């Protein structure tokens, strides 16, 4: 596969005008029934995105092409299932590998719409579930709505890392950037690896191990952040290079979701709805996670008293480390993801956690984009939220695991939280945009 990948990337390096087409086609194939299981699209997507980030394509163009390619792959897969129905099993590939179809069909029947959203981030299921949805005559408008949401998150998760890597190699960064970035990446990999290993192995105290690992890295970051100045300066410069007026407005709307007063309202609604539904233990877990993150964030921010980047035209007066937006957003969405995963297999619970991290990461990264925080600020906020969430869950499950919420409770919870978040995102934008202008 190495020679094959080198030949493709080598040709695209010599012919960068075809990169846009390549991103679109590879994204489509990665989400296309059967083909997505055979072609190593994930590796190829990263390599092509890195080439795009080296100056051939902007980030918005790369993400849009990946998004549209993924949608086309979903649509073709859905049409195949809708057209052939049960005869789809006779197609080449599926005829000799019936387990591909069986696992996707079982997953779809068990989780319904949620399977299309979560399964998008599970390699073997991603190209098969749209075809199963068509085979089971899922209404196309419903399928299209879920596919759009899933494709948007998927394109960011799979293309942004590669594009950022290519852009980083292109820019003249501080001398110590790459060693410091390597240290940060290695520490994150250790925490994530320990968390995944303890979870997948079903360790009895997996939640405690995750909390301890996050806390250890958080303490290390508090001690060592002065030595990561080149990393902060370099990554901030990389992000600031790609600012634009329309993206400023988008990022301001996103960042408003994490503002303290508005996050307090959303958190109160979240906890209040669980109390209204008489889900006492769930409300205790959510309330402890959200309140604990807010209180500890405020205390540590005063203790470390770190100044903000000198980018804002109207600098904020409060200190920057750890980022309150990052800790609040990750605490909120991780708590929601934990509740969504209750009563489900461990791999599905981990996938819900990944999905919860996506909107929280957007809010956190918006702070670096707008120049309100250093990258290590949002990393500290993220680790703080992970630590509090893990310990709160451990306390809530001291005697027995949290049970899954009923569908009735979810129908009360989700529409209300989506409505609250929508109001928050589209309130007060003109003043906020002026604050974050160049």
Q: What is this structure, in a nutshell?
A:
With 438 residues, the chain is mainly alpha-helical. The protein has 20 helices and no strands.
Describe the fold and architecture:
This protein has 438 residues and is mainly alpha-helical. It folds into two domains: 2-152, no CATH class; 174-435, Up-down Bundle (Vanadium-containing Chloroperoxidase, domain 1). Helix content is 75%, strand content 0%. It is built from 20 helices and no strands. It has helices at residues 2-14, 19-30, 35-38, 41-56, 59-84, 98-111, 113-118, 129-135, 140-170, 177-200, 206-224, 229-240, 245-256, 260-276, 280-304, 324-341, 346-369, 375-396, 407-425, 429-435. α14 (260-276) packs antiparallel against α19 (407-425). The mean pLDDT is 81.
